[in-house]
Amino acid sequence: MTAGWVLLPVFVQVALTFVLIIWTARARLGALRAGDLKVRDIALGQNAWPARVTQISNCFQNQLELPILFYVLAILVLVTRQADVWFVLLGWAFVALRLLHALVHTTSNHVPTRFNLFAASAIVLMVMWAYFAARLALTAT
Amino acid sequence: MSQTMIFWPAFVQVLLTIVVMLTMGRARSSSMRVRKQSLDDVAMNRPSDWDDAATKAANNFKNQFEMPVLFLAGIAIALALKLVDPTLTAFAWVFVLARVVQTAIHLGPNKVGPRAMAYLVGALALLGMWILLAIRVAGV
């Protein structure tokens, strides 16, 4: 497995993050232009935005939580030359679940569905870390 | 060009985070002194527990663990795969300088318009970094 295969899902997760920050910025500008609130309402915190805007910015914030552990794992896999097909498949499973989670979060925001998708992605990530730890332990020199 | 050149903008980002952390500490202790609060009063870290200066500093500190984490991850990938080149390094410097400006505005006058502009410049530089990384990885 080449580094590119391990990194492709990483790039997709990063792309999702950028799509969400651009979406957040557009939604926030839109709310300000529509006069839903004043700039001074949000200068010291992001609590005053309308629900629709908060829904999108919360989803953006989420991408900077668990996915960080995914990035760190990808880097460790590359540096330690442990890349194999399982990291690629599990990486895609993680990112696919994150995409679905983001889709639900920014649309219906149905919390039970969101939770299930989040939990599934978290389990995939735990499996990836456990698999990496086991590989390192078994191949330790 | 030495691969390790790209460590320096990352180091500046880490220094910025530490400076903001220290600023936050000072602002918080001053907020508690002025408002005559004990540690127990602020243990839950509610928004209402802090004055504006402490809130701004804490907001900015939290900011340093958002986009900058993607920046540090991108740099780690570039170093791991020896993909550092002058363009990537230039993007990294633009990112970190934009972040320094964003923080200076945030902790100073906190004008939201200029703050958003500095944020945007940093975000675009970071996007440039990641697109370049993807292109380079695809070419590996």
Can you describe what's shown?
The complex is a heterodimer of chains A (141) and B (140). Chain A has 141 residues and is mostly helical. In chain A, 79% of the residues lie in helices and 0% in strands. Chain A contains 6 helices and no strands. Chain A has helices at 3-33, 39-42, 51-62, 66-79, 85-106, 111-139. Chain A is elongated. Helix content of chain B is 74%, strand content 0%. The model of chain B has no long low-confidence stretch (mean pLDDT 96). The longest helix of chain B has 28 residues, at 7-34. With 140 residues, chain B is mainly alpha-helical. Chain B contains 5 helices and no strands. Chain B is elongated, with a radius of gyration of 18 Å. Chain B starts with 6 loop residues before the first helix and ends with a helix. In chain B, 36% of the residues are buried. The interface between A and B is medium-sized, with 27 and 28 residues.
Features:
heterodimer; A: 141 residues; mainly alpha; B: 140 residues; 5 helices; 0% strand
The N- and C-terminal alpha carbons of chain B lie at a distance of: 18 Å
Quick one: how many beta strands of chain B?
0
Strand content of chain A: under 5%
The SS-based structural class of chain A is mainly alpha
Q: How is the biggest beta sheet of chain A arranged?
A: none
Quaternary organisation of the protein chains:
heterodimer
User: How many H/I helical runs of chain B?
Assistant: 5
Structural class of chain B: mainly alpha
Question: Residue share in helices of chain B?
Answer: over 70%
Average residue-wise pLDDT of chain A: 96
Query: What is the CA-CA span between the terminal residues of chain A?
Result: 21 Å
Number of helices of chain A: 6
Q: What are the secondary-structure elements of chain A, in order, as H or E?
A: HHHHHH
What does the radius of gyration of chain B come to? Answer: 18 Å
Low-confidence stretches of chain B: none
The average pLDDT of chain B is 96
Residue share in β-strands of chain B: under 5%
Using a beta-carbon cutoff below 8 angstroms, give the protein chain pair with the largest interface and the number of residues from each chain.
Answer: A-B, 27 and 28 residues
Query: How many strand elements of chain A?
Result: 0
The largest β sheet of chain B comes out as: none
